[in-house]
Design brief:
With about 60 residues, this protein is of the alpha+beta class. The protein has one domain. Helices cover about 25% and strands about 10% of the residues. It has one helix at about 1-15, and strands at about 35-40, 40-45. The chain has a two-stranded antiparallel sheet with strand order 1-2. A hairpin with a 2-residue loop joins strand 1 (about 35-40) and strand 2 (about 40-45). The longest helix has 14 residues, at about 1-15. The radius of gyration is 15 Å and the shape is extended.
């Protein structure tokens, strides 16, 4: 049952069913704007090596 729910949630995210954009207020030290490159069945961005092991958030 849990696997079915994950598939449904993933399908909803892929369809982008959000009716309107959501406003975020974000505080941080660095902002990097990158283009996502294809990688297998997903995408990839490269980040600075000193960010390895850090927690980041991605907003689209």
């Amino acid at each position: 049952m849990e696997v079915v729910m994950e598939k449904k949630e993933r399908a909803a995210l892929e369809k982008n069913t959000t009716p309107a954009p959501v406003k975020f207020e974000v505080y941080g030290d660095v902002l990097i704007e990158k283009t996502v490159r294809p990688n297998g069945k997903g995408g990839r961005i490269y980040l600075p090596p000193d960010w390895v092991g850090k927690t980041i958030k991605v907003i689209k």
